[in-house]
Amino acid sequence: MTISLRSRHRWFSALQQLAQSIPYPLRGLLLGLLLWSTLTSAWINPDPVWQAFAPESAIAALGKLLFNGTLWPHIGASLQRVAVGLLAAIAVGVPVGLLFGLVPMIERSASGALQFIRMISPLSWMPIAVMAFGIGDLPVYFLLAIAAVWPILLSTSSGTAAVNHKLLLLARSLCATRSETIRRIVIPAIVPQILVGVRLAIGTIWIVLVPAEMLGVSSGLGYFILDTRDRIAYNELTAVLLAIGIIGCALDWSLQFLQKYWQPSR
Predict the structure, then answer these.
(1) Tell me, what CATH number does 198's domain have?
(2) Whole-structure pTM value
(3) Considering the domain boundaries, does residue 72 fall inside one?
(4) What is the CA radius of gyration of the chain?
């Protein structure tokens, strides 16, 4: 009896040490996987349709789609649209944010109208985007850009307004021009804030991407979701949802890496 209790204690201690060695993010993923598997199990949902949404079915379908090359063109198309929409948002948001941060009067004058437009859901622009740009990639680019521009603009504006004024006075005393001051002092100082805005923009753009790709395009993850629904391939649909989550996390982690290792002194 004593040996059995000691054995149980050793097993409990080993399991406790193993649990403590697992990183906290991985613990959450394992817990979510366990919950997902439980909710789609046969003893909770005996309907065979629900078995297509099970983790093992989705992972197997994802591996098959990646191995036979079916999913890669759709991933590439979606990432291309994200890149174009994000670059357009940066091209608009950073200069306007700099202008607002450097000239508060302009920011105060335009804040009401911009706040009104910002509160309109990006997906609400779908009919107007189709009327203006037709069917294809252009309305998708427009929707992604208008969804991503606001966090970049606001982060840039707040970062510019918070730049150390002593540095600006020093540049003025050294007879630096306005463009030199912006290029050599303001922009390097606000890069961390811009990265924060870009990270928020990627999160927003990745959410808007899937419904935006249902505007008549013939490729992309959003289009593929509609295709799997029409084919009643629910295991592939779940696999695409899994791929969307993985790619979104990878994009967010890459921005976290840039934020962590960015050195403003450069």
Answers:
(1) 1.10.3720.10
(2) 0.82
(3) no
(4) 25
